[in-house]
Amino acid sequence: MGSYVHRALAGDGRLRITHVVVPAEFVADAQAQLQDAAVVVGDVDQLDATPDFALECAGHSAVTGAVPRLLRRGVDVIIASVGALSERGLPESLETAARAGGAQLTLVPGAVAGIDALAAARQQGLESVEYVGRKPPAGWRGTAAEAHVDLERLTEPTVFFEGTAREAASLFPKNANVAAMVGLAGIGMDRTRVTLIADPGVTRNNHQIVARGAFGELDIRTAGETLPDNPKTSMLAALSIVRAVRNRVAAVAI
Predict the structure, then answer these.
(1) Which of 43, 51, 115, 161 has the fewest CB atoms in 10 Å of its CB?
(2) Please, where in the chain does CATH 3.40.50.720 lie?
(3) Which residues are catalytic?
(4) Mean pLDDT within 238-248
(5) Is 161 in contact with 196 (CB distance < 8 Å)?
(6) Pick the CATH number of 1-107 from 3.40.50.2000, 3.30.70.260, 3.90.580.10, 3.40.50.720
(7) Averaged over 165-190, what is the pLDDT?
(8) Binding-site annotation, residues for NAD(+)
(9) Can you give the residue ranges of the Aspartate/homoserine dehydrogenase NAD-binding domain (predicted)?
């Protein structure tokens, strides 16, 4: 995802990507790929200047390790790995770090539509929120789903997980960022019900949110294409990050 977002933003004259942070063992290779387009470092403490804002596309370990330090340093951060916030106490610790640094943490909606409406509905109170994630079997390879279902031999849609958004995001960190985002935007991680399905009859990553409350009822479905080189990630998730970054420099933000 990081590579996709970097390519999408590289030609935008309103933005300048000054630094890229990767694990130390990948610094040399990343620098060779980027050449002089940006400086590559192995840790945020090695940044030789304070950026206007930072973007996380590196997974849960970056959210727990690098993001708090950036926030305390006064750097606004946009994070993609929202599923990391399923860890108890982490949202509160990130908020504390942001307050200490006078910075802001932004969570992107990712692969699903309707997060703005869900967060708005929460202001008047929500009664229930349900999320259903349906992907082709290939989208669940290399995850905990393999312990529950034979992904290579599926002939019909198969539910392999039912539980809370917190449980889903914890068990499927590379696939269920959406579950965490729905939980955080709506009724909470422990009250949001999640169903995950492997379906050989679909070719796209399908997401459905159903919410009920004083505002009425919300039923939103999204069927997204995946990134060409990563079947676990919806293209819309990457584009959601691109939008969030461009909104930082736009005269009019939507």
Answers:
(1) 43
(2) 1-107
(3) 207
(4) 94
(5) yes
(6) 3.40.50.720
(7) 90
(8) 111, 177
(9) 2-105
